[in-house]
C-alpha cells in the first residue's frame, strides 16, 4: 500500500497516540481507524455509531477467516 505524509494538528496527533497505545495500534493506524469511521458516518448519516463500529469489526473478522454462516432457523 502506498503511503503519503500529511500535516495534522499536534493535539489530534497526541490524542491519537494515547488511543493507539490503549488499543494496541500504531498512531497512524489509529488515525486511519478514525478516518474510516468518519467516512462511513458521513456516507451513512442515519446509522448509529455502534452499528458502524460493528460493521468494521465484522469486516475484519471476515477478512481474518473468522466468519460463520448464519442459520435462519
Number of helices: 3
Number of strands: 0
Radius of gyration: 15 Å
Structural class: mainly alpha
Helix coverage percent of residues? 55-70%
| N- and C-termini, Cα separation | 42 Å
Task: Give the SSE layout.
Blueprint: H1 10-22, H2 27-43, H3 49-63
Helix pairs in contact: 1-2
Note down, in words, how this protein is organized.
The protein has helices spanning 10-22, 27-43, 49-63. It has three helices and no strands. Helices cover 62% and strands 0% of the residues. It has a domain at 34-65. By secondary structure, the chain is mainly α. Helix 1 crosses helix 2 (27-43).
Short structural description:
This protein is mainly alpha-helical and 73 residues long.
Key terms for this structure?
extended, 73 residues
Amino acid at each position: 500500500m502506498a503511503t503519503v505524509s500529511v500535516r495534522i494538528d499536534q493535539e489530534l496527533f497526541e490524542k491519537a497516540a494515547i488511543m493507539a497505545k490503549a488499543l494496541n495500534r500504531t498512531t497512524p493506524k489509529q488515525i486511519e481507524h478514525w478516518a474510516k469511521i468518519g467516512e462511513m458516518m458521513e456516507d451513512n448519516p442515519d446509522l448509529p455509531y455502534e452499528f458502524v463500529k460493528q460493521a468494521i469489526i465484522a469486516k475484519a473478522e471476515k477478512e481474518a477467516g473468522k466468519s460463520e454462516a448464519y442459520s435462519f432457523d
